[in-house]
Amino acid sequence: MTNMKRHVTLAGIAALGMLAGCNYDKNAVQQIDGPIASSAVKFFNFGVNTPSVNFYANDTKMTAISSTTGTESVNGVAPGGVGNGGFYSTIAPGTYTLTGKISATTDKDVSISPVSTQIADGKYYSYYISGFYNTTSKTAEAFVVEDVLPAVDPSVAYVRFVNAISNSSAMTLSVKNSTTAAVTAIGGAIAYKSASGFVAIPGGNYDISTRVSGAATDAITRTAVAFSAGRVYTIGARGDFTVPSTGTAATRPQLDNTSNR
Fold first, then answer.
1. 215-229: per-residue pLDDT in tens?
2. DSSP letter string, the chain
């Protein structure tokens, strides 16, 4: 947990430094006043055809991207992206509405995915924009899962699975060691908006895949994924389940690998 807090602190300082520059910038990521920021949230834009966004907790901006001029970029976090460079954003415990707000000039700061959630003291969470973006209502679905991080163990890697595909059935993630060919199921079948627990595996390179319960073939695959011993990872499924996963469409089902620690 000490390493995690160090990463969060450094990431927060770096993000604030890039955005604020020498003068106060009302567009920069701001600190939430009140209790000590002892908890943390990781932000994912995993919706289908969603716009790029900045992430907020209530009215406080938690992630943003600076341009080459030092002002806030209109690019934000694109679909398939993770806010704050993949690091957690620190936050004080309390009740929040987490959301993504459009970062582009058109429809600037329109909230597309509000979710009310309770942030407990000292705990970690992941917030996902998910589902299909509705261009008329300018909305997408979203959900929050708690990240129950395991104790630091330098001898193994830990992996879990999050299903952010709204039109998929429940799926099981399996990882196949590239050296030993040993296959490990990462928990059971995980439904949309749900997460498995973290499962310990030997560090190494793996081919990973998901399969719908009862199916004879894999639904989504990804090869040569590195899991380092002593680290903790989340594999997130995103995209449109009706699009062939073997193609190149941006909306195809894909497996994202993001480090939690």
1. 999 999 999 999 999
2. -HHHHHHHHHHHHHHHHHHHTTS--TTS--PPPSS---EEEEEEE--BSPPPEEEEETTEE----B-TTSSBPS--B-TTEEGGGG--EEE-SEEEEEEEEE-SSTTTT-B---EEEEE-TT-EEEEEEEEEEETTTTEEEEEEEE--PPPP-TT-EEEEEEE--TTPPPEEEEEEETTT--EEEEEEEE-TTEEPPPEEE-SEEEEEEEEETT-SS-SEEEEEEEE-TT-EEEEEEES-TTS-TTS--TTS-EEEEEE--
How would residue 13 be classed by pLDDT, with cut points 50, 70 and 90? very low
Full-model pTM: 0.85
Is 25 a domain residue?
yes
Q: Which of 112, 146, 180 is the last residue of a domain?
A: 146
State the total domains in the chain: 2
